[in-house]
Design a protein that fits this description.
alpha+beta; NE0471 N-terminal domain-like; three-stranded antiparallel beta sheet; globular
């Protein structure tokens, strides 16, 4: 995961809103986003979710009520959230959080389209994966 590029927006403030289940993040360029925990979880940059390359993504379901149980800094370029469903392997760079915040309307549309294409409901429990090759 690359560090921020020179001149890229950096976070000025991060607040976890547990009750409303959103991560509020403001950047030094004036942008402010309220990113739902569910969106963070279904778009986690981890190998478990994103896979090891294009086409290897695992569609996440049943994450509507997921909460953050922890949020740890990773150097000065990212945070690593721990989610209530046990997922804690995604490292969210400032660039990636900015992307999630600025593109969340499109990401929700894409997520719902992927759910529809797979014929699964957003609230369905995750199917068990047999023989996961990345040790998750």
């Amino acid at each position: 995961m690359a560090a921020l590029q020179s001149g890229a927006p950096a976070p000025a403030d991060i607040t976890v809103h547990g009750q409303s289940r959103v991560l509020e993040i403001s950047f030094n360029d004036g942008a402010r986003f309220r990113i739902p925990f569910e969106l963070m979880r279904v778009y986690s940059p981890s190998a478990e979710v994103a896979g090891h390359g294009p086409g290897q993504e695992t569609l996440q379901t049943g994450k509507r009520d997921v909460t953050l149980t922890g949020l740890e800094p990773v150097g000065n370029y990212a945070v690593q959230p721990s989610f209530s469903d046990g997922h804690d392997t995604g490292i969210f760079s400032w660039d990636y959080l900015y992307f999630l915040g600025s593109q969340q309307d499109k990401l929700w549309v894409d997520y719902n389209a992927r759910l529809a294409a797979a014929g699964v409901d957003r609230d369905a429990p995750m199917a068990e994966k047999a023989g996961s090759s990345c040790g998750h």
